[in-house]
């Protein structure tokens, strides 16, 4: 795993459910088994507060405050989607031990948060070539890039007590040690499902990188109710 600001990441145990075993392989092996893809990006859906029956710091009772999802605002200097909001994530690299470890690396690099648990696969977004050069040389049927979304949990976010109110939650969220890479992101926000839905349905509110990603965010909220 990479380091941030030259510091060493403390070893941490990552729980991976059996349903995600197919992603516990290096990038080369994953692409070899899935020749329809030529590039892989992964996205992390991080909620707060944590869910009692998932989290390793589970307690006897838990707050019923609606969950918030972590979004990052892209840097104004970014070529693609400057100033728009997205979930953390990025490209899986050939030297990542596994696909899932690659996402853990990206989450740490972009937020400073340490991944401890993969909860579930949230969505799959398949796209063709994006640059003009790729479009010129690509043909129908050529491999495409894929972006996989995973709900995850991190060591810094715990379960709140049942008597916690929304004001306390706001303070708790502000206290979380999210550390941004200023070359990639300029701001963070913990958003409600309704905030995402307003953008998805009406195109107003906090501007996100795409309606498709907003739709996957809504699916992530929905899966937590299943």
User: Whole-number average pLDDT?
Assistant: 84
Gyration radius over CA:
18 Å
Percent of residues in helical segments?
25-40%
Kindly report how far apart the N and C termini lie: 33 Å
- Alpha-beta content class: alpha+beta
- The secondary-structure element order is HEEEEHEHEHEHH
| Tertiary shape | globular
Q: How many strand segments?
A: 7
Question: What's the total helix number?
Answer: 6
Strand content: 15-25%
Largest β sheet strand count, sense and barrel closure:
7 strands, mixed
Low confidence ranges: 1-11, 53-61, 129-138
In short:
This protein has 226 residues and is α+β, with helices and mostly antiparallel strands.
Describe this structure in words.
- It is a single chain.
- By secondary structure, the chain is of the alpha+beta class.
- Helix content is 26%, strand content 24%.
- Strands 1, 2, 3, 4, 5, 6 and 7 form a seven-stranded mixed β-sheet that branches.
- Helix 5 (193-202) runs antiparallel to helix 6 (211-223).
- The longest helix is centred in the middle third of the chain and has 13 residues, at 99-111.
Primary descriptors:
disordered N terminus; 226 residues; 6 helices; 7 strands; alpha+beta
SSE map:
Elements lengths: L26 H7 L3 E12 L19 E7 L10 E2 L2 E3 L7 H13 L3 E13 L4 H6 L6 E11 L11 H10 L9 E7 L1 H10 L8 H13 L3
Parallel strand pairs: 1-6
Antiparallel strand pairs: 1-2, 1-4, 2-3, 2-7, 5-6
């Amino acid at each position: 795993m990479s380091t941030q600001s030259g510091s060493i990441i403390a070893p941490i145990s990552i729980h991976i459910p059996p349903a995600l075993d197919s992603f516990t392989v290096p990038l080369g092996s994953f692409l070899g088994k899935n020749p329809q893809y030529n590039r892989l990006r992964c996205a992390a859906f991080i909620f707060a507060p944590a869910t009692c029956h998932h989290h390793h710091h589970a307690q006897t009772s838990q707050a019923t405050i609606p969950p918030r999802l972590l979004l990052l605002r892209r840097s104004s200097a970014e070529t693609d989607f400057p100033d728009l909001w997205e979930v953390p994530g990025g490209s899986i690299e050939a030297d990542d031990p596994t696909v899932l470890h690659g996402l853990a690396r990206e989450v740490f690099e972009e937020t400073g948060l340490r991944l401890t648990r993969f909860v579930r696969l949230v969505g799959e977004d398949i796209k063709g070539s994006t640059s003009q050069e790729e479009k010129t040389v690509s043909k129908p049927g050529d491999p495409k890039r894929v972006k996989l979304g995973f709900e995850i949990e991190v060591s810094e976010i715990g379960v709140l007590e049942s008597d916690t109110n929304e004001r306390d939650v706001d303070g708790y969220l502000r206290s979380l040690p999210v550390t941004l890479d200023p070359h990639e992101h300029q701001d963070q926000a913990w958003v409600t499902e309704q905030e995402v839905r307003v953008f998805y349905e009406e195109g107003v509110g906090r501007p996100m990188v795409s309606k498709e990603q907003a739709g996957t965010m809504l699916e992530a909220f929905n899966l937590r109710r299943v």
